[in-house]
Amino acid sequence: MQPNGRAPDRAPSDGDEPVTTATSPHSGPHLLADDPHDRELAAQVHPADWPNPEPTGRYNLVVLGAGTAGLVTAAGAAGLGARVALVESHLMGGDCLNVGCVPSKCLIRSSRVVGDLRAAAELGFPATTAGHPDFPAVMERLRRIRARISHHDSARRFRDELGVDVFLGRARFASPDTVEVAGRTLRFKRAVIATGARAVAPPIEGLAESGHLTNESVFALTTLPRRLAVIGGGPIGCELAQAFARLGSKVVLLHDSAHVLNREDADAAEIVQQAFVREDIRLVLGATITRVSRGAAGERLLAYRAADGSAGEVAVDEILVGAGRAPNVEDLALDRVGVAWDRQRGVHVDDHLRTTNPRVFAAGDVCMTHKFTHAADFAARIVIQNALFFGRRQLSALTIPWCTYTDPEIAHVGLYAHEAEARGIRVTTFTVHMRDVDRALADGEEDGFVKIHVRKGSDEILGGTIVARHAGEMIGELALAIVGKIGLGTLANVIHPYPTQAEAIRKAGDAYNRTRLTPLVKRLFTTFLRLTR
């Protein structure tokens, strides 16, 4: 184990490049060379003895990248009878399996136990020492669960069960209809770029020299940082800041906006922000970090300037950067095949996910604004239809919900009220606070709300935000209503088991229905009932 509590990098494989090159634009996670769980993971998603097949003939699809978008594209196309080649330069499963959704939610689950234990006194339990977690055990569980899940994305499963030709190595376009990988040439009728994105660090003086973590390296920690600075108050920064604070780190979160999660409505973000304050996460908002340096004892010193012009400095043991991602577009030789791209947007695609070369499509984080696993999944389904069957499915037709897995969670789907107004759409908003929901009170989880926007004068649902302990589980009902064109008045007729927190959605429907009882209608009802007594 290295002195800083990070795992050593895994040794290179027998392939054409290391599996976990920390400086590579497609770098994978730092794996524990002597950890059985990570050895199992590597054996699944980048086996050292993997034999690349000999390509024969032309492929219906050559897919570059085996993250969510690439895996779904390859598996779906092969299942329909297409001949498919899948190329991955590092770890199959991409960010989601290796350094994203799976490990982060394992970490968050452990940290929620700590949060519950620390709040146990209000539920009638005395304070205990159980709120002091065993961090190495937390991380061991993370690696164990990740390895257990990894077989779904394994090279052998895609080859042996799904019939996909899997190539491990770096791919480059060689001609209008060929891709080269590990000394082999793959001919294609259609190609799909699904190379994903990577974490990037802001251009702060001294940051690179001082060393820092990102989501691509933080899950390799085996020693809890005593003091942790998190740069960035977006979803990644907020989720991990709260998780590490609950697991025992003294956390300071530095963000350049006036409140965290500034993509969300201010009232929703404020609830999470106040939860952070209660949990002793220090917030430095409206901050510009001017310099990072090393102190005499090896600590990192972050100098910052606040929005009011004042200056300050914090000393920490580790820095976690959660402030942006960049598409993996380098070294693909895209110019050779006429595919337009840039380093900010990534690959340029139209609404059908076709690039400027009609033979080449793209999906996932390499080209999309919504960089979510579930968005990549459904974009891949669009690509299959449009690339193989002359389909005209549109990305803009998808209704994509999302969730930030803080405690409480913030989930959203559809339009925000300010977006609707910017489009000239007048809305009426119905809000039910969780403090008015019986189950939320019983659970001690009354911070939050369900907020639903409907087109003014109708019950057509345009969007909604949920702030609740399990908002991610609840938002699907609103997404279903939007996709199925189910009005808010109809949701009032959906019977939820009592008591559940999702009953807040029905209550919003009841609130809408009460607006239909105008004074005139009520007078008519009163007259009718008086006459029929």
What's the count of strands?
23
Q: Please report which band the strand proportion falls in: under 5%, 5-15%, 15-25%, 25-35%, 35-45% or over 45%.
A: 15-25%
The description of the largest β-sheet is: 7 strands, mixed
Estimate the mean pLDDT confidence: 92
Class inferred from helices and paired strands: alpha/beta
Please give the alpha-carbon distance between the first and last residues. Answer: 84 Å
Pick out the low-confidence regions.
Answer: 6-29
The helicity comes to 25-40%
Query: What count of helical segments does DSSP give?
Result: 16
Quote the CATH topology of the largest domain: FAD/NAD(P)-binding domain
Rg result:
25 Å
How many separate domains make up the residues?
Answer: 3
CATH architecture of the largest domain: 3-Layer(bba) Sandwich
Provide the CATH superfamily of the largest domain: FAD/NAD(P)-binding domain
Inertia-based shape: globular
Q: Determine and state the CATH class of the largest domain.
A: Alpha Beta
Please tell me about this protein's structure.
The protein has 533 residues and is α/β, with parallel strands linked by helices. The protein folds into three domains: 36-94 and 151-199 and 327-393, FAD/NAD(P)-binding domain (3-Layer(bba) Sandwich); 207-323, FAD/NAD(P)-binding domain (3-Layer(bba) Sandwich); 408-515, Enolase-like, domain 1. It has helices at residues 36-45, 68-79, 94-98, 101-118, 135-149, 155-161, 207-210, 235-247, 266-278, 373-388, 417-422, 438-443, 471-483, 488-491, 503-515, 519-531, and strands at residues 58-64, 84-88, 165-168, 171-175, 178-181, 184-193, 197-199, 227-231, 250-254, 282-284, 288-294, 300-305, 311-316, 318-321, 325-327, 341-342, 346-347, 360-362, 402-404, 409-414, 427-433, 449-455, 461-468. The strands form six sheets. Strands 1, 2, 3, 4, 5, 6 and 18 form a seven-stranded mixed sheet that branches.
